[in-house]
Amino acid sequence: MAETAPPAATYDPRVAEPRWQARWEAEGLYRAERDPARPKHYALTMLPYPSGDLHMGHWYAMAPSDARARWMRMRGHNVLFPMGFDAFGLPAENAAIKHGVPPKEWTYRNIERMRGQLRRMGMMVDWRREAISADPEYYRWTQWFFLRLFDGGLAYRKRSPVDWCPGCNTTLAREQVVGEARVCERCETPVTKRDLAQWFLRTTRYADELLRHEGIDWPERVRTLQERWIGRSEGARVEFETEAGEPLEVFTTRPDTLWGVTFMVLAPEHPLVERLTTPAHADAVRAYAEQAARQSDVQREAAGREKTGVWTGGFAVNPVNGERIPVWVADYVLMSYGTGAIMAVPAHDQRDFEFARAFGLPIRPVIVPEGEPPPAPEALEAAVEARGRMVDSGPLTGTPAEAAVERAIAFVEERGAGRRAVTWRLRDWLISRQRYWGAPIPIVHCPSCGPVGVPVAELPVRLPEEVEWRPTGESPLKLHPTWRHRPCPACGEDAERETDTMDTFLCSSWYHLRYLSPRAADAPFDPAEYDYWMPVDTYTGGIEHATMHLIYTRFFHKACRDLGIVRGDEPMRQLRNQGIILGEDSEKMSKSRGNVVAPDALVDRYGTDVVRAYLMFFARWEQGGPWSSQGIQGTWRWLQRVYQLFGAGPDGGPGAPPDAEAVAGLRRRVHQALARVTADFDAFQFNTIISTLMELLNDLVKARDGGLGGTPAWDEALGIYLRMLAPVAPHLAEELWRGPGTPPGRRSIHEEAWPEVDRAAAAEAQLVLAVQVNGKVRDHITVAVGTPEAEIRALALASAGARRSLEGRTPRKVIVVPGRLVNIVA
Ligand code: ANZ
Ligand code: ZN
Fold first, then answer.
1. How many C-alpha atoms does 791 have within 13 Å on its Cβ side?
2. Cα(346)–Cα(344) distance, rounded to whole angstroms?
3. Across the strands, what pairs with 303?
4. Taking Cα atoms as reference points, which of 754, 789, 750 lies closest to residue 769?
């Protein structure tokens, strides 16, 4: 224990915390360097977007993650816990348009501010490794990765719809389309769609692999969300034919219902719509397609939505029975899934059922429960489940429903009218943004050579800083007088730069690699650092990233593996998500509700240790819950009591020598608490760590009052307590460990080893074992821990209950289940 100056009655974190932070910085306490002698641990927490202020959600994600990283360090790991900023994105651009502040200025000012707030949190971040995705030295490599993907055939360009505002004459980002009516946030004109040539990454090539989560420990919930997002469906592609003889292919998961098809539906954007539509229906179809173009896919897919659509006037032929099927257009069929066309089976598909009812189309059941006649279609209230036997299905009639899908596939395959097929919900990743504040896509469009990659030696393709902000929303890269013009890298002719920038999710797909060597000048990262630190061991952040970011970063890693840039199949071994902090009123924190709790004000008042500890304590971390100002005061009092107990020294010191049982009792409680806290850190169970420490403090106070102060067991208890406190309240623990005036050279508590649990000390002194005879409890015996088995057996046989129940029979077997029971088999 450090000899501290006589302690003040209360601990003032406002003095102590900045003092320790400066000291740790000066000592380089949190510098992470490769060290082959120690096992490495890469703890990563999702990097913030520099929106302005660090809010409670950031704290909730980061402070417990920091505590765990510190714990790993005390466990003997060489820990890397870096931090950076996801600095490109639309809000900076909006600020520029609104207030005329350049995005760069706005962004870096916010970073400055948030870096200060992060430092105040007192995390064990090695700030030398900070990475900012908007730095040219960072986005140089984002562009380099893009070129590697382009050369590897994993980036390509194709026409694709974007949201378009006819009022502003510009494309809109998803966030700029607002409300149910989907209007432009700037001028409130209803949004339409436009086809633009845009860049995509081939995520779909990795669909199968992304579906597998082998060798990684990710929450079930995230895996399920990813599986749904990737959405693998097995079924068949079946070819219908229009009356003009053109193939019209559908994807169906239910080829068994082919004989129940009573109409077909095309997505309004389907290329065959125009040719199928008869003149009499042309106006209605065109008007319908226009309104459909204003909806998002999400809206169009919403369950229970009223079905709308129009008939094209055209027909197609069902390949299994030659029937003439009317072809409709409806927005519940998406162009982006399957083939953009469906065979509708209203008897067995709920959406088709609702559509048929809305438009008076026939309904034909083809699967009926065993032994029942087909239901009368008019009487049906919903689509019918596929259980029983096939009816009215040509060669499939009589087949059990379970076997029908396979037989239907065989049937269409034989006739050359279709084949088994798998379809994915996952789309290729559209990375083009018609925006300024992002990494420019390093491509030059040449009239003779097509798209050509910018030579690597010319990277980064820098964003021009002298740009004009016009409220039209058109990207300043397009408006810039000179930026886009340059000769073709291949042929030297006049050519033009790509003016789109990259989706910021691309920047954040590889930031964990830049942290490894943020100043590497000739590569995105130093391979030696990679070999030592990767993969990320624990990744923490919000569940809202379950799909986009966490799919993209896995895809990116796998693509880079195949391009020979990285090794290993997965970038992040273990993932854990925090929950959400609600306001004191149990509602989502929001300015309009006035229930926002600002961390800065709390740090001013209580210090960071209290805020950190309270965030670990107030709820199960993965669940979150409502904030409580009552609760944070309880945490404050607890840490003050810790300070007083430790500062006071062994008061009430030994009068009578403490008896052995009291000493054993103290050690037992200390080591039991240590075992629990250790297991809880391992499991990210932060709330019970704090409650265990709170309880143990009460035990320590009692032990001191009982005369144990100053004994070796007491010193051991305080030492263990402080080391358990160190990851939770790093400043207070250091203050009590080193004392405010310690000379340089004395080791920080954060370099100490996590204490070992003394199992013998932690064990309960006595155990109560049940005595069973033939499986029935007849008695109980109390034995000292560690009593040999033979002795336990003898005690059990001698117990009154066992003797009574045995009635002189000789036992055949006596089984001891350690710590629980003895079973006598008579
Ligand atoms: C006939 C049928 C009968 C269907 C039946 C289902 C039940 P999942 O499981 O999500 O893959 N479908 C196909 N392409 C579509 C598109 N572009 N937009 C909207 N719906 C589409 O769904 C596959 C089923 O969704 C397909 O199987 C098709 O309807 C429909 F009793 O075909 B089914
Ligand atoms: Zn050229």
1. 7
2. 6
3. none
4. 789
pTM over 0.90? The answer is: no
Q: Whose Cα sits closest to atom 28 in ligand 1?
A: 252
Return the ligand number nearest the Cα of 261: 1
Bridge partner list, 266: 329, 341
Pocket test for ligand 1, best of 240, 252, 270 (most atoms within 8 A of CB): 252
Taking the CA atoms of 609, 611, 616 and 617 in sequence, report the sign of the dihedral they define. Answer: positive
Q: How far is CA 824 from CA 146, 767, 807, 820, in A?
A: 72, 18, 13, 14
- CB contact at 8 A, 752 and 74: yes
Number of neighbouring beta carbons within 10 Å of residue 253: 15
Separation between Cα atoms, residue 815 and residue 826, nearest integer Å: 11
What is the spatial distance between Cα 25 and Cα 462, in angstroms, rounded to a whole number?
34
Query: Token match 């990563």: residue?
Result: 44
Query: Which residues line ion ligand 2, judged by CB < 5 Å?
Result: 446, 448-449, 488, 490-491, 493
> If you average pLDDT over residues 453-480, what whole number do you get?
88
Alpha-carbon distance of 153 to 453, in angstroms, equals 12
Whether 763 and 785 have beta carbons less than 8 Å apart is answered as yes
Write out pLDDT tens, residues 403-418: 999 999 999 999 999 9
Q: Identify which of 228, 249, 254, 390 to mutate to test ligand 1's pocket (most ligand atoms within 8 A of the CB).
A: 254
479 Cα to the center of ligand 2, angstroms: 23
pLDDT tens-digit series, residues 727-757: 999 999 999 999 876 766 789 999 999 999 9
Which residues form ligand 1's pocket by a CB distance below 6 Å? 233, 251-254, 257, 333-334, 337-338, 340, 342-343, 345, 348-349, 423
Could you give the dihedral angle defined by the CA atoms of residues 347, 348, 354 and 357, in that order, rounded to the nearest 10 degrees? 0
- The token duo for 365 is 């059941």
Structural tokens at position 233: 């469906």
- What is the whole-number distance in angstroms between the Cα of residue 759 and the centre of ligand 1? 59
Query: How does pLDDT run across 168-182, given as a tens digit for each residue?
Result: 777 887 777 888 888
